Write a sequence for this structure.
């Protein structure tokens, strides 16, 4: 028996690959990563009349060069895993461009079936394609389909499986590249064949073409395999390149691209495409664009849409989040009730339930946010936003698409950096993408807001709203400047070409949105269950151990007994208050004694420069885990016992009364909290999305250093000007 | 007929690409999107800050930054250039 049938899906971005994949595999899919890169790997199972067929969704690419991770992943998969057949999905309304990728598959020689997708959309545009004629000209099965409704997909799969069953070797197609290159290719091919140079993996002519295109990956492999021949091939290519430069003022790779398009045009001209309308005719999509990207209306509509998305998310997400917070609160209280006092209870309640619950309570917000982004992305609007914003963002070394990540992270105050960092996936160029995901967490996310509001409310009582608005602006300025700094230092490099497609506006399907949203939300939940769980436990331990020495505990206990003894019916109130004070004092001392407390105290000499004392330090250290923790830790540190962010009035009074706090300290604190290390969930996301630990550590160290420098500057300057009073 | 860089084209003006004078990654990205000699393009519009530019190419819409459009040479009918 043969092994299981393996079919790969390849196609341009936006050709409907994901839609087809979802249709074929339904819920039987698995999303992972290709080893070592952040490119998503999707696999699924298709049920072909009772037989299982393995389907792999390759990343969407326009070409198979070595310029982007996606392209390298796609072609490495094809040559190393050798799927029995590739289904090449092409957008029928845009066939000429889509066939450019197909040409490269033909040259590789892998058995291919061409799926002409979106024939419904093409028909609406007056384009009809003679699939039978195309099949005859290309010599491979061509099946028209509508991935969205599933029409034609059964036939597509039947034909693909039939191809997969044929025992056959790869048959590379030779495209003519003009006299100069054809001669060169022929010579190179012979040399490659005789030396068996990389021929176990790649067809000889294909390797030769890659040398002409100066493909870095193949050149490196060639160098490792046979340095002499590699040098020889490079020299040959260089000679012809010189010749082309002198005679025609062009590049070898340009000649190759031109001839590929020439080959495509020659095929399409033979009665394959019938165009009913003038190609320059304006379609509905173009009409919408006339308004939506209009010089004056465009920006206004964009602001309205983004505000609307933000508003919807928080109007509907916040109450759900509150419900979840409440449920975890009850859960905590329940466990509190059931278990005897001790470390186990403390771990369960303060460590696990509070930590994981805090993260899980973000799920509704994240889900809504992703649903919103999915709508914007699937409808095609997101590409327009990138188009409109690119000029501004480019100044700072970013890309038009960076705007989305900023806004989601809290660019309008009160987002969340976790989905923000994940939203950078829409950016295709690595340097701009990393610069974006490192700076997006500088925005004022929803977890920082309560702390900022508390400090603002306590020390800047006049113009509170304006002040918060100024803080939002400050976040943008700092984020953009940081991006500029990163892009001119560690992430230096020319911006990648902006060449981007503005897909026609399409109505998103419910199924597509649901799958999209669920996939991303699930990744987040999984993280909460693993990484965050571990971190919560660690943080809990740091704030609990080492515990107070036994004799101190005994002293507190005897004081407690003393209060209880003097307690009579009339003095209930007094003794209750006394007990409260005692517990608070004990908690404070325990915190001071713990690892986290000692760290806070140890850091004091340094943090004094910015005006922070040891209590603030503990709160800020706790804030590494989640910014929400800052207020509750400050509460503990200020001996308030149980402080929840909703009723921070007493904490506000305590801060106002503490001589260490004044408007200058508050401003330094606000700035530090806004810009220091992102919370641990975000760091985990950064590591995942940037593909290396390095960037996660970098963001913690770099942001903290920068925030501290700013805070010190504010504190010192403020005091020098005598504002600290 | 006149040859001008794409960057100088006006809104709604059409022309045929005669050369793409850049190699490397940028050249490749432009070519794989169908911007090769012989392709007919129409300038569809510009972003609010005049950059990037949106083009109609082979039935789809592409966007390019002005500094990328600089490398593309277009043959346009004389009439439209001074319009
Ligand atoms: N009219 C029509 N629309 C389709 C069809 N197939 C897919 N679409 C739509 O085309 C858009 C893009 O589809 P996707 O499946 O996300 O495309 P993709 O190739 O996976 O794109 P990337 O995720 O960017 O790689 C979606 O809005 C789909 O709903 C079809 O057969 N007809």
């Amino acid at each position: 028996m043969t092994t299981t049938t393996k079919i790969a899906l390849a196609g341009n971005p936006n050709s409907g690959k994901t839609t087809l994949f979802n249709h074929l595999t339904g819920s039987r899919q698995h999303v992972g990563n290709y080893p070592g890169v952040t490119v998503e790997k999707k696999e699924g199972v298709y049920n072909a009349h009772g037989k299982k067929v393995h389907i792999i969704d390759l990343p969407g690419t326009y070409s198979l060069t070595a310029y982007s991770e996606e392209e390298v992943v796609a072609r490495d998969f094809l040559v190393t895993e050798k799927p029995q057949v590739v289904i090449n999905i092409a957008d029928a309304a845009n066939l000429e461009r889509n066939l450019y990728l197909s040409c490269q598959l033909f040259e590789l020689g892998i058995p291919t079936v061409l799926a002409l997708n979106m024939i419904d959309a093409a028909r609406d545009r007056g384009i009809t394609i003679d699939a039978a004629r195309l099949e005859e000209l290309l010599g491979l099965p061509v099946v028209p389909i509508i991935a969205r409704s599933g029409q034609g997909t059964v036939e597509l799969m039947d034909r693909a499986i039939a191809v997969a069953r044929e025992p056959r070797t790869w048959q590379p197609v030779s495209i003519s590249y003009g006299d100069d290159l054809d001669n060169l290719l022929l010579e190179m091919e012979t040399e490659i064949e005789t030396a068996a140079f990389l021929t176990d993996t790649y067809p000889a002519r294909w390797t030769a073409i890659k040398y002409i295109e100066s493909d870095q990956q193949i050149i490196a492999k060639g160098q490792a395999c046979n340095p002499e021949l590699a040098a020889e091939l490079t020299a040959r290519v260089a000679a012809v390149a010189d010749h082309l430069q002198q005679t025609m003022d062009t590049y070898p790779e340009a000649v190759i691209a031109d001839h590929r398009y020439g080959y495509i045009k020659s095929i399409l001209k033979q009665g394959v495409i019938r165009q009913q309308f003038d190609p320059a005719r304006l379609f509905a999509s173009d009409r919408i664009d006339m308004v939506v990207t209009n010089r004056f209306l465009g920006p206004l509509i964009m602001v309205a849409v983004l505000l609307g998305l933000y508003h919807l998310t928080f109007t509907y997400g916040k109450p759900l989040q509150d419900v979840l917070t409440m449920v975890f609160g009850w859960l905590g209280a329940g466990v509190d009730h059931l278990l005897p006092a001790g470390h186990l209870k403390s771990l369960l309640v303060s460590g696990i339930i509070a930590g994981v619950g805090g993260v899980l309570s973000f799920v509704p917000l994240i889900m809504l946010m992703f649903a919103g982004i999915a709508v914007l992305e699937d409808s095609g609007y997101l590409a327009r936003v990138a188009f409109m914003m690119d000029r501004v963002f480019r100044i700072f070394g970013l890309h038009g698409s960076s705007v989305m990540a900023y806004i989601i992270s809290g660019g309008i105050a009160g987002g969340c950096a976790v989905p923000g960092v994940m939203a950078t996936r829409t950016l295709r160029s690595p340097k701009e993408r990393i610069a974006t995901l490192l700076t997006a967490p500088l925005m004022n996310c929803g977890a920082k807001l309560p702390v900022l509001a508390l400090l603002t409310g306590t020390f800047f009582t006049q113009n509170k709203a304006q002040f918060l608005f100024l803080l939002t602006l400050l976040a943008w300025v700092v984020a953009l400047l940081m991006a500029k700094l990163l892009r001119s230092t560690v992430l230096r490099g020319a911006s990648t070409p902006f060449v981007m497609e503005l897909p026609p506006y399409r109505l998103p399907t419910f199924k597509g949105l649901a799958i999209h949203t669920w996939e991303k939300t699930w990744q987040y939940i999984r993280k909460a269950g693993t990484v965050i769980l571990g971190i919560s436990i660690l943080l809990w331990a740091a704030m609990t151990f080492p515990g107070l020495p036994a004799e101190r505990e005994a002293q507190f206990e005897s004081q407690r007994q003393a209060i209880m003894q003097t307690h009579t019916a009339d003095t209930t109130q007094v003794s209750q208050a006394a007990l409260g004070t005692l517990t608070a004092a004990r908690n404070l001392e325990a915190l001071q004694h713990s690892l986290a407390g000692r760290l806070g105290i140890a850091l004091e000499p340094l943090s004094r420069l910015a005006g922070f004392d040891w209590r603030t330090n503990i709160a800020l250290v706790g804030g590494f885990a989640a910014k929400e923790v800052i207020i509750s830790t400050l509460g503990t540190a200020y001996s308030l016992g149980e402080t929840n962010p909703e009723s921070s009035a007493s904490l506000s009074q305590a801060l106002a009364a503490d001589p260490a706090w004044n408007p200058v300290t508050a401003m330094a604190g606000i700035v530090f909290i806004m810009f220091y290390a992102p919370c641990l969930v975000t760091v985990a996301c950064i590591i995942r999305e940037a593909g290396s630990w390095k960037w996660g550590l970098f963001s913690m160290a770099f942001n903290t250093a920068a925030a501290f420098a700013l805070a010190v500057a504010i504190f010192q300057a403020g005091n020098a000007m005598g504002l600290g009073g | 007929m006149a040859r001008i860089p794409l960057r100088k084209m006006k809104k709604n003006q059409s022309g045929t690409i005669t050369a793409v004078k850049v190699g490397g990654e940028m050249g490749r990205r432009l070519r794989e999107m169908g911007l090769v000699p012989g392709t007919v393009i129409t300038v569809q519009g510009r972003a609010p800050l005049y950059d990037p530019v949106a083009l109609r190419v082979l039935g789809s819409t592409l966007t390019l930054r002005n500094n990328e459009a600089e490398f593309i040479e277009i043959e346009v009918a004389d009439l439209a250039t001074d319009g």
